[in-house]
Amino acid sequence: MIFTVFTACSKEKKTQTESETNTTVTSTFATEEAKIKDTDAIKFIEQSYTKKELGLDKIDKNYELMVASNGAEIDGEKYVRVFANVVTQTDETNKDGKKTFSIETIGEYGISFDGTKVIKKDMKTGEYTELENRYADYSAKGQTVSEHNHSHNETTKE
Length: 158
Hints:
Blueprint: H1 2-20, E1 25-29, H2 38-48, H3 51-54, E2 64-67, E3 71-74, E4 77-93, E5 99-112, E6 118-121, E7 128-131, H4 134-157
Antiparallel strand pairs: 1-3, 2-4, 3-4, 4-5, 5-6, 6-7
């Protein structure tokens, strides 16, 4: 239920943001072909970056990381989008008598479908900047450690 509300809110805010910036989201589509998606995308952002790197270190509200149900094309590249949202229960109820919530997006991040690029949106200007892709770095470091251990083992066998 919250996710459905989130999707509607994010599209509305995106439209407002698009008119104010040079960065454009041209279309949305399914994320089946993305290397990192769904809850893995949330875990990737949460575990790869500090709050400061994500621009969330000065946020004094509780927030949740949520992944958009559809991917987006941003400046010609396909991304899975992860949002940092503050979810607040309102005093209103919907037509079925259920509680309603408001969602304030305080951070937006994208992971390219091929997993090679990570971007962060500046929430004031709407511009995206690239973050260090620690997933790629971690793989490279793992290979280096593995190669080092392998050559060390060969040396000690002699």
